[in-house]
Amino acid sequence: MFAARAVRTVPALGNRAASTIALKYSNAIYGAALAKSPATLTKVQAELANVSSSIKADAAVATFIANPTLSAKDRTAGLNSLYSSLDAKKQPLSELTKNLLAVLSENGRLGETQGVIEGFNELVAQYQGELTVTVTSASPLPKDIQTRLETSLKQSQTAQKAKSVKVINKVNPSVLGGFVVDFGDKTIDLSVQSRVTKLNAVLQQSV
Please, are residues 183 and 134 in contact by the beta-carbon 8 Å criterion? Predict the structure, then answer.
């Protein structure tokens, strides 16, 4: 049963907002799954997709995952409840996936779960020769702008080296305007928020 204490969460600005810590877990689960077999990698990816969907669809699960104040006992009970709900809908979770969530829980990093999953998916995409480009904007991009942006991105040298290119538009009001483009290990920040931050830095230096 999930503890329902409220907690305030802060939206992330694109994939690069995933913490360095989250990416370490992403690399760990990716390496462990691939070391077993490509089939295991695919299975773990499907399982993590189900975990991600549960976090997005179930407010109680989202609150549980984001709450850093829960006791070890409450975290264990919450994970067991999550495992049961997922096992009831799909095939039982593998030990790799359960171990990942257990380690995140033990280290007080359950709040990093979505970032870990995103990082894992990027690694799998790279392994499969797919380049995922994430465009984060304050509101959904109009279809014509998204099409033009996709065309430009697919003409880049990085994209042409990939077998396929997948462009995802994420919405985050905190970028204020413009957008942030993440692909590979690169980030192009064309947001108004970035300009405001730079302006504030200049003003502070001038005082």
Answer: yes
The per-residue DSSP string of the chain comes to: -------------SGGGS-HHHHHHHHHHHHHHHHH-HHHHHHHHHHHHHHHHHHHH-HHHHHHHH-TT--HHHHHHHHHHHHHHHHHHSSPPPHHHHHHHHHHHHTT-GGGHHHHHHHHHHHHHHHTTEEEEEEEESSPPPHHHHHHHHHHHHTSHHHHTSSEEEEEEEE-GGG-SSEEEEETTEEEE--HHHHHHHHHHHHHHH-
Amino acid at 107: N
* Tens-place pLDDT, residues 8-66: 333 333 444 457 888 899 999 999 999 999 999 999 999 999 999 999 998 999 999 99
Contact in structure between 149 and 135 (CB atoms under 8 Å) = yes
Q: What percent of the chain has pLDDT over 70?
A: 81
Q: What is the dihedral of CA 176, 168, 53, 97, to 10 degrees?
A: -110
Radius of gyration (C-alpha) of the chain in whole angstroms: 19
Nearest 5°: the CA angle 139, 19, 78 is: 90
Q: Which amino acid is at 98?
A: K
For the stretch 181-206, pLDDT in tens is: 887 667 888 776 666 566 566 556 65
Instruction: Point out which residues pair with 131 in neighbouring strands.
Output: 165
The pTM (predicted TM-score) of the whole model is 0.65
| 117 phi and psi angles, rounded to 5 deg | -65, -40
